[in-house]
Every structure is written in C-alpha cells, then in structure tokens.
Amino acid sequence: MKNDRLTIIKCAVEEIKDGMYVNLGIGLPTLVANYIPPEMTVMLQSENGLLGIGAYPYTGEEDPDLINAGKETVTAVAGASFFDSAESFAMIRGGHIDLAILGGMEVAENGDLANWMIPGKMVKGMGGAMDLVNGAKRIIVIMEHVNKTGESKVKKACTLPLTGKGVVNRLITDLAVFDFTEEGMVLSGIQPGVTMEEVLSNTEASFTISPLLQSELQVSKGDRHE
C-alpha cells in the first residue's frame, strides 16, 4: 500500500472509539478494518446485511458466501449477525450507526459530498451512501487530496452529482484534515511531511486554520528560524 494511503487509513482509525457501530464505505474505507486495535470492541456494519465484519481473509481462506457491500470476501467476528437489506437500512435510517467512514470524489467547503457517480461512466447504482450520510451520527470522508490529473478534489462547490448536502463532519486526505463547523471549513491538521504551502496550493476550497494548529505552525516556524 502507498504510504500516503496508509497515512489516511491510520488517521481514520483514530476516529473509531470502543463500543461503536461503524459502517465502512466501498474502496479505501474497507481497509480500515485491518487496522482497528484488537483490544477494541467495534461492530462493523455492511449494507448487504452483516454486522460484525472482521479483517480481510488470508489467501486460501476466503468464503465466497461471506462478502461486504463491495462484493469483497470478508471475515466475521465472534457475535456477528446476518440479516436482510431491509433490516440493514432500518439500522442506518434509524440512527443506529455511530460513525460512517466513506470515500469521496469531491468535498465542498460547505460540507457537501459527491461520491457515487461520474457522469458518462457506468454505475450499478447509488448504493447506501445517500442513506448513510443522512442516517449515521457522524460522517468521515477519506480520499486523496487531488485527482489523477492533479486537480483539487477539495472544492469551493462540487461539480459532480451530490450524495448529500452539508453532511461531512471531517475530511481526511493524504495532505490534511479538515473539520466542517458552523463557522465554515477549518484546517485542523496537516499530515506528516506535508507543508502548509502544499495544502494551500492543492486546495480549491476556502478555509480557516484552527487556533491549535496555528499555534503549532508558529512554534514550528520559530524552531526553523532558530
């Protein structure tokens, strides 16, 4: 795995607390399951009807009947349960999911999320993302900061079809961490080895810097000056 993706995943794991019910989106978020500390009791939920997802199976130990919403083979932890999609979405829509960690194609400075389709490309459907962003108690989006052509995915306004309006609580990228508050989009962290200049040059959205990070940057600048 690329180091920047591992940085994102490890940062996302810090959002998970003991005893939580968590939904992991398709793609990068599913890898979070492999990094949850073994001493932590967390129940991972999948829209296709599984509560209690474990880590990915080892090669040769896959069970083709045990899959997540992305059709990937998974494992089940002790105490896991299986149910139909209606029950699964009742959990989501009923507000029983503490945290959803989702991938993103674009996130806007007002917390809008676009992550389900690119116009002109074939998609199987919208999946459960629209339900999750409105039903889960907290929404974390993890993604790379720029797309394959080097354009910022952290936008002033989303250009792709929206999954939800103003639904993102925190955005974690390979460059930075942003929180979405009543005062707007706030830069709350910079990833190791990344400079403020890199964050600014790769972010289309407007944002403020949290007081705590501002203090850390000033101390760091002072150290470099010395």
Automatic annotation (TrEMBL):
Instruction: Output the InterPro entries linked to this UniProt entry.
Output: 3-oxoacid_CoA-transf_B (IPR012791), CoA_trans_fam_I (IPR004165), CoA_transf_AS (IPR004164), NagB/RpiA_transferase-like (IPR037171)
Similarity comment: family membership: Belongs to the 3-oxoacid CoA-transferase subunit B family.
The family database entries (NCBIfam families) matched by this protein are listed as: pcaJ_scoB_fam
Keyword terms of this UniProt record: Transferase
**First and last residue of the signal peptide:** none
- The reply to whether tRNA-binding figures as a keyword in the UniProt entry is no
Q: Which organism is it from?
A: Paenibacillus alginolyticus
Pfam family for this entry, one: CoA_trans
Q: From the Swiss-Prot or TrEMBL record, give the protein name.
A: 3-oxoacid CoA-transferase subunit B
**Superkingdom of this entry's organism?**
Bacteria
